[in-house]
Amino acid sequence: MTDRLRDIDAILRDRLAATQAIAEANTEQMRLNQKASGMMVLEMKDARDGVTDSEHEAAMARNAAALDDNLHRITRLEQALSSLDEELAAAVRKDS
């Protein structure tokens, strides 16, 4: 197996793409958190008013699942970014 390193420019392009994907996933996480907060307010209002609506609970469960899935996506993207950083460091050392 050859231990050939990729070009630094290629690594930096991949790193930029990973950084952009993390930013998008973080934006989605913030949106989902805001949605969860809004649903919690509606749930508290319904509880105060004595209203029971299973649709709120189903929507909250779907949003919680989306939050969890997106958090796993962020973790995978951050791991990929870390690998790219290691690859970049190795490529820079090779070029030095």
Q: What do these coordinates show?
A:
- The protein is mainly α.
- Helix 1 packs antiparallel against helix 2.
Question: Helices, strands, pairings?
Answer:
Elements: H1 8-49, H2 54-95
Helix pairs in contact: 1-2
List keywords for this structure.
Helix Hairpins; mainly alpha; rod-shaped; 2 helices
How do you describe this structure in short?
This protein is mostly helical and 96 residues long. The chain contains two helices and no strands.
Mean pLDDT: 91
Multimeric organization: single chain
Count of extended strands: 0
N/C terminus separation: 23 Å
CATH architecture: Orthogonal Bundle
CATH class: Mainly Alpha
Write down the Rg. Answer: 21 Å
- Portion of residues within helices: over 70%
Keywords: Coiled coil
